C-alpha cells in the first residue's frame, strides 16, 4: 500500500489539496460574511441588483478568455514551455480579448441592457464594466501559479480578493453609502489591488532561465484553449442560466433570495474545487504514465463524492436556522430551493473532478459535447419550471442538469480509460486501508 501511495504521489497531492481547501474555506467564510452584510443592509432587492450587475463582467471574462488559462496550466505543468514565453503570449491574448470585451460590453449596455438586465440601472453596468479586463488578466496570472504548482502563492492571492471585498464593503456600509453602485466600486478596487499583488508574486518566475518552448505559443494555447473554451462557455451558461431567468421572470428580489440558496449550497464545492485545482496539473504532468492516471482519478472522485454527500446531509439539517438567524426571516424562502439544489451540487462535485481528468488527457472537447446537451436541458427546465414553481423550479432544473452532466462525464471517462464506472462512485476496501494509513501517519 505504501509503495502504491508513493508511486501515485498522493502525499504531495493531499498536501496541495489541503493547502487549497484551507484557503477556500477561508475564502468561503469571507464571501459568506460579505453576502450576509449585503443582504442585511441592502435587502433582497439590493443583493439581487448587485449580483446581476456583476454578471456583465463575469460573462465577458467567460466569453473572451479563449480557454487560455487552462491551456496555460496544461503546458506549464508538463514543463513544455518557459514562463517568460508563456507570459508574452498571454499578454497578446489579454490585449485582444480586453479590447473586444470592452466594446462588446458597451454595446450591450447601450442597446440591450433594458431587455437583458431588466430593472438594473445602466449606470451600474457601466461601473461594473471595468471589472472585466482586471478579472481577465487576474485569471491568466492565476494560471501561472497553478501550472507551476506554486499553490502557496496561488492560495495567498486567491484569498486576498474576498478579504479586500469584505473590507471595502464594510467601509462602504460604515460610510453610510447605501447605493448599490458603491458596492460595485468596492469590488472593482479590490480586484485591482489583488491584480497588482498577484503580478508582484509572479514577477520572479518570469526571470527564470532562458526562454524555451513553442515559437508560436499563443497559437498553441489557443488551439488547445478553444476546445476548453467552448465547454467553459456552456458550463457558465449552465451555471448562470437560472439566475438570468429568475431575474427575467421574478426580478431582483427573487434573485436576491435565490442567491442565498445558491451561495450556501455551493460551499459544498470547496473540496471538489480544491481537488480540481490540484488534479489538472498533476494529471497533465503524468502524460507518459497512463497507469498512474487511471489510478488517481477514480480514487479521488469517489472520496470527493462521498464526503460531499455526507456534508450535504449535515448541511440540510442545519440550513434553516442558519438562514433564519443569519440572513433574516425575509430570506427563509430560500430553504426549499437550497434543498432542491443539494443533489445536483453533490453530483457536480464529482463531475468537476472527472472533467479535469478528461481535459488533462488533451480531450477537453469531450466536456464540450456533454455540456451542449446539459445546457439545453437546463435552460429548457428553467423556462418550464420557474413560471410554475418560482425559485424552487430554478433549483430543480439546475439539479437535473448537474446530475445528467455527471452521468455523461462518467461514461466519457469510461470510454477514454476503460475504468469501470462504479470505480468512480463506490468506496472500496483499498480506500479504507488507505484512509487508515493516513490516520496512522504512515504516509
Automatic annotation (TrEMBL):
The keyword Membrane applies. Keywords: Cell membrane, Membrane, Transmembrane, Transmembrane helix. Its main location: membrane. Signal peptide: none annotated. It holds the Pfam family Polysacc_synt. The chain crosses the membrane at residues 21-42, 48-69, 90-112, 124-145, 157-178, 184-202, 243-262, 299-323, 335-354, 366-385, 391-408. GO terms for cellular component: plasma membrane. InterPro entries: Poly_Biosynth_Transport (IPR050833), Polysacc_synth (IPR002797). It is found in: Cell membrane. It comes from the Bacteria. It is a multi-pass membrane protein. Coiled coil: none annotated. This is Uncharacterized protein. It comes from Zobellella endophytica.
Amino acid at each position: 500500500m505504501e509503495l502504491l501511495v508513493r508511486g501515485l504521489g498522493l502525499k504531495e497531492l493531499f498536501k496541495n489539496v489541503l493547502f487549497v481547501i484551507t484557503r477556500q474555506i477561508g475564502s468561503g467564510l469571507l464571501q459568506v460574511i460579505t453576502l450576509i452584510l449585503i443582504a442585511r443592509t441592502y435587502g433582497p432587492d439590493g443583493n439581487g441588483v448587485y449580483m446581476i450587475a456583476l454578471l456583465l463582467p463575469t460573462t465577458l471574462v467567460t466569453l473572451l478568455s479563449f480557454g487560455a488559462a487552462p491551456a496555460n496550466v496544461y503546458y506549464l505543468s508538463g514543463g513544455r514551455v518557459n514562463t517568460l514565453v508563456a507570459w508574452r503570449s498571454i499578454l497578446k491574448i489579454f490585449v485582444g480579448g480586453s479590447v473586444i470585451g470592452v466594446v462588446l460590453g458597451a454595446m450591450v449596455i447601450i442597446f440591450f441592457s433594458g431587455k437583458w438586465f431588466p430593472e438594473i440601472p445602466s449606470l451600474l453596468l457601466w461601473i461594473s464594466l471595468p471589472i472585466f479586463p482586471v478579472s481577465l488578466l487576474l485569471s491568466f496570472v492565476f494560471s501561472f501559479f497553478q501550472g507551476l504548482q506554486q499553490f502557496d502563492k496561488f492560495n495567498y492571492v486567491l484569498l486576498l480578493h474576498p478579504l479586500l471585498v469584505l473590507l471595502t464593503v464594510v467601509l462602504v456600509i460604515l460610510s453610510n453609502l447605501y447605493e448599490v453602485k458603491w458596492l460595485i466600486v468596492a469590488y472593482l478596487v479590490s480586484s485591482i489591488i489583488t491584480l497588482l499583488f498577484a503580478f508582484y508574486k509572479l514577477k520572479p518566475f518570469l526571470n527564470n532561465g532562458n526562454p524555451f518552448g513553442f515559437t508560436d505559443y499563443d497559437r498553441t494555447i489557443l488551439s488547445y484553449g478553444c476546445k476548453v473554451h467552448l465547454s467553459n462557455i456552456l458550463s457558465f451558461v449552465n451555471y448562470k442560466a437560472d439566475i438570468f431567468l429568475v431575474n427575467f421572470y421574478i426580478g431582483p428580489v427573487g434573485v436576491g433570495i435565490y442567491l442565498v440558496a445558491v451561495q450556501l449550497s455551493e460551499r459544498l464545492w470547496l473540496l471538489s474545487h480544491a481537488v480540481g485545482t490540484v488534479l489538472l496539473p498533476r494529471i497533465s504532468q503524468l502524460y507518459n504514465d497512463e497507469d498512474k492516471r487511471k489510478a488517481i482519478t477514480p480514487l479521488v472522485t469517489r472520496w470527493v463524492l462521498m464526503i460531499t454527500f455526507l456534508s450535504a446531509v449535515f448541511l440540510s439539517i442545519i440550513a434553516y436556522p442558519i438562514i433564519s438567524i443569519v440572513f433574516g426571516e425575509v430570506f427563509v424562502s430560500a430553504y426549499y430551493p437550497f434543498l432542491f439544489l443539494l443533489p445536483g451540487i453533490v453530483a457536480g462535485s464529482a463531475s468537476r473532478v472527472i472533467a479535469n481528468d478528461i481535459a488533462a488527457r488533451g480531450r477537453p472537447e469531450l466536456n464540450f459535447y456533454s455540456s451542449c446537451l446539459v445546457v439545453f436541458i437546463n435552460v429548457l427546465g428553467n423556462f418550464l419550471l420557474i413560471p410554475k414553481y418560482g425559485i424552487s423550479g430554478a433549483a430543480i432544473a439546475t439539479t437535473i442538469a448537474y446530475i445528467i452532466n455527471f452521468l455523461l462525464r462518467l461514461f466519457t471517462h469510461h470510454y477514454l480509460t476503460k475504468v469501470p464506472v462504479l470505480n468512480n462512485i463506490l468506496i472500496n476496501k483499498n480506500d479504507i486501508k488507505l484512509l487508515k494509513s493516513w490516520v496512522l501517519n504512515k504516509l
